[in-house]
Design brief:
2 domains, globular
């Protein structure tokens, strides 16, 4: 009532100027955020990665390392991994990717001659003109791919700087709150960061397992471009629910160029593996790190992908888990007490 009277006593001119100034500030912030959205995305990704790496740092600290040496060990491991990629995997990937692009016309002709495609309208689309357009589009998208790679590298390097200043940043953020609320805010904030970090570590582990398992299968089965396809499987598997299916379609399509039998074997492998991943690996991550049911996870990922694309699909689950925690702490618990 007192606040209502205070607002009522303000002159209409001052009230209008205040509201106009507030709307102007909001508009300026929105426009500025739109123009620097790329920078904001990089900063967000860096913070997301730093939160996951902080889980690894915490694990090493619990094993007896100091935080400084734990961060140094992570940076050293990252540099060794990067050197290994540049020295061994990257040349092989480049060779396989070039061979794959060069083989697209022959692959299209083989697909067109398959019995179940020969009489379909799909053969009308497999023409040299369409194929050249497809290749041009792929090559034209190389610049965009390079841009996203540069963003990923920048976000990774920035995440290391954030990781080094992780604890001071946390302490400084909590100090913005009144002293009486800092204890509870720290508990809730640490819980949220733990969920996000645990999910990220679990998702990366699952993706690495998927890529490694697929690589072993493709090498045994004789599917071409095994290393390139395994990397595609690992990257796409980071997208919850739908990424593994997309990766399986890519691998089966390549296997189909060798033989129908090999494509069927690849299909069976990915169906079996995805069942194991969906009902064993992912539920462990959801239940232990996020405590989200499979139905809720599917719905949240679909909404995140529709709103923000691939990035939305990746961050949808930890964002939902964080919102769920906030609702429980600030909405449900006070009502249970009262």
């Amino acid at each position: 009532m007192a606040s209502f009277r205070a607002v009522r006593d303000v002159s209409p001119l001052r009230l209008g100027l205040g509201m106009g100034l507030g709307l102007l500030i909001v508009g300026v912030i929105a426009i500025a955020s739109w123009h620097i959205r790329t920078v904001l995305i990089v900063i967000f990704l860096a913070g997301f990665l730093a939160t996951g790496l902080n889980q690894v740092v915490g694990f090493l600290v619990r094993k007896g390392m100091t935080r400084r040496w734990a961060i140094t060990a992570i940076i050293g491991a990252g540099l060794l991994l990067l050197c290994g990629l540049l020295a061994v995997i990257v040349p092989t990937l480049a060779e396989q990717a070039t061979a794959f692009v060069d083989a697209i016309p022959a692959v299209a002709q083989e697909l067109a001659q398959l019995p179940f495609l020969a009489d379909s309208k799909l053969t009308d689309l497999i023409t040299p003109a369409h194929l050249s357009t497809l290749v041009s589009g792929v090559l034209g998208g190389a610049a965009s791919a390079a841009f996203f790679v540069a963003m990923a590298v920048t976000a990774t390097l920035l995440s290391l700087f954030i990781l080094g200043a992780y604890e001071p940043l946390q302490t400084g953020t909590y100090r913005l709150l009144p002293a009486s609320q800092r204890g509870r805010a720290r508990l809730i904030g640490d819980d949220i960061l733990g969920k996000v970090g645990g999910y990220l570590v679990g998702a990366v582990s699952i993706a690495v397992i998927a890529g490694t398992t697929s690589l072993i299968f493709m090498l045994i089965a004789g599917i071409p471009y095994a290393l390139l396809l395994a990397l595609i499987v690992m990257v796409l598997d980071l997208i919850p629910q739908i990424g593994a299916t997309i990766a399986a379609i890519v691998v089966v399509a390549v296997a189909l160029t060798e033989s129908l039998t090999l494509a069927i074997v690849a299909t069976i492998f990915f169906i079996v593996y995805q069942q194991i991943e969906n009902w064993v690996n992912h539920p462990r991550v959801m239940q232990h790190a996020l405590k989200i049911s499979n139905l809720a996870a599917l719905i949240v990922v679909m909404i995140g992908a529709a709103l923000f694309g691939v990035l939305g699909a990746i961050i949808a689950l930890p964002a939902y888990a964080s919102a769920q925690l906030l609702v429980r702490e600030f909405y449900l618990k006070p009502r249970e007490v009262s």
